Amino acid sequence: MRVSYLLSLLPALVAAQLPLPNPPFLPPDIASGAQTSSGGFPNPKWSSLLGTLLYFYDEQRSGTLPSTNRVPWRNDSLILEGRDVGIDLSGGFYDAGDFSKDTFPLVRTIPFTIPSNAQRKMQSFALMSICWGATDFGQGYDLANQTAYLDDTLRWGLDWLIKAHPNDTTLVVFIASADEQNTYWGGDRSIPSPRPVYTITNANPGTDAAAGAAAAFAACSNLYAGRGFSNSSYSAPASLRNDSYANTLLTHGQQLYSLAVNATGGRKTYQTSVPQAGAAYASSGYGDELAVAALFLSWATGSATLYQEAEAYYTRYKLADSNRVFNWDSKTPGLAVLFSQINQGSPSFGGNFSTWRDTAEDFFDGIVNNKGPGYLLQDSLLFYDGDSDDASLNPALNAAMLLRRFAPMASSVDKRVAYTDFAKSQVDYVLGKNSMNGMFPLYRFPPRG
């Protein structure tokens, strides 16, 4: 085992995580069917739902499982991942229903409650999204007694992402055999290995993947440092503060942002350097990743320069023209919200809160008034042609997440109410308030109407 690998683990090992509850939380027995809520605060049904959604990530775990493993059918798997190339890449999460590990888009994110809900990209997009949500709405995790599981889930992904970033100018972006990725349907104990490990480097860059990982590290550093967005309408960050771990995450974020911006090979989409990864999850561009990374880093470091770089990316890469769906490949709809949060909290950065608030409202008004770019299906589910076709609920739930986050900053009471009500309608649809009286799975295609 290489000394450099052991050293890379020290910060994570020193920054101990929260102890998990004993006995552990387990999802309710599905055989019991739907049950009426008894109400109260916190509502036990919502607390159980949040816990069940976090449990989903336990089901996706790779590597040597801890003694606290709650999933009886999940086994230790691929515990020697990466050793053939001199990097310990065991751990992390599998992507969706297969066994690949994708740094840019790894595991499918759970719907509706974990705040951001687009589908793939655990090691970058989903980690960023969960940390952003737990920074804004941390009280929900605390009241539901799920903060320890939030910490456990995040560290399982973040510790793997730290290992996937073994030095300043290298990031592992894909682990899988192209021939076996979608053809192996066996159990987790007999996954064919060793598997090819694909990286981006200074000479063979992937601007989007590096910047996306930088955004994840920075957003999660903000959470672990307790750096909320100073908006009294939101709750405080979840109670898992750990300054040592926050500093470790920030260092990795800064290094990866530097790689994204300054790679000697220039700025390129990651599939240019690693076509094997792009064959499954091709990126449409990197301007949005650069902007969101700069924004989270600006908040983490108090840097007006980074904030101004984010505004420059928004203009340079004409991101307003792609303001459509918030998901693993497109961060643009979330940028105006994040710009607004940062402007409200740090006016000294030089931004204009009213400008970004108006940009966000132009987008959200189109959604709630059914004037595009999406449109409403039967029972008022938001649908985007070309995006919702394969992931029917995710674009709608991502829009709901952004609407709910932005609503307290809206320019009028009417807009605040409209945004909140629309967000609630999308969640209600998924939970069974629809003409079929059924709770939809993540990929069921709803009827057009």
Automatic annotation (TrEMBL):
GO terms for biological process: cellulose catabolic process. It catalyses: Endohydrolysis of (1->4)-beta-D-glucosidic linkages in cellulose, lichenin and cereal beta-D-glucans. Residues 47-107, 123-438 form the Glycoside hydrolase family domain. Residues 1-16 form the signal peptide. SUPFAM superfamilies: Six-hairpin glycosidases. It holds the Pfam family Glyco_hydro_9. InterPro entries: 6-hairpin_glycosidase_sf, 6hp_glycosidase-like_sf, Glyco_hydro_9. Keywords: Carbohydrate metabolism, Cellulose degradation, Glycosidase, Hydrolase, Polysaccharide degradation, Signal. One of its GO terms (molecular function) is cellulase activity. The keyword Signal applies. Its EC number is 3.2.1.4. Belongs to the glycosyl hydrolase 9 (cellulase E) family. PANTHER family: ENDO-1,4-BETA-GLUCANASE. This is cellulase. The lineage of its organism: Eukaryota, Fungi, Dikarya, Basidiomycota, Agaricomycotina.
